[in-house]
Amino acid sequence: MADLVNKIVFSWFMLVTIFVTMHMMDGVESGFLPRAEIAISNKIPKLDLVFHCKDKSRDDGFHSLAPDQRYKFGFSIDVFLNHTLWFCSFQWFNEFHYFDIFSQKRDNCRTNCEWIIHRKGPCRLVSENLTDLCYPWNDQTPPLPLKPFNSLGMN
């Protein structure tokens, strides 16, 4: 019986060690974790698109795309907590916007997430039904309605 308990404890210890090690390797790309591949295309006529993408611990840097140019990058996806999030800022001429370019909870694309950047917002190409999923910029979503409080903090 003691051997069985020791094997169970050892197995749990190994699983926890693997889990912690994989999270510590956040910036390290490994061959056995699933990856997301992101492509960004500039569809803003006659204007260069400057963008900067990153997550909480990794930074892909600043990039510039002329109209109709495309840029690709990839990263490992968190298989344990399902919370991978990459966000980008986009700017051209006198406009600045930001958007979550990959949200593991929202996006079901894994091997190829193709984004087209328009003035009104980003659109993800969906090949299954040959349509685009278009989103507003994060900074253009309406704020939650707020009611003023009286001096006692009550509505």
UniProtKB/TrEMBL annotation:
Belongs to the plant self-incompatibility (S1) protein family. One of its GO terms (cellular component) is extracellular region. The chain crosses the membrane at residues 6-25. The keyword Methyltransferase does not apply. The keyword Lyase does not apply. InterPro entries: Self-incomp_S1. This is S-protein homolog. GO terms for biological process: rejection of self pollen. Keywords: Membrane, Secreted, Self-incompatibility, Signal, Transmembrane, Transmembrane helix. It is found in: Secreted.
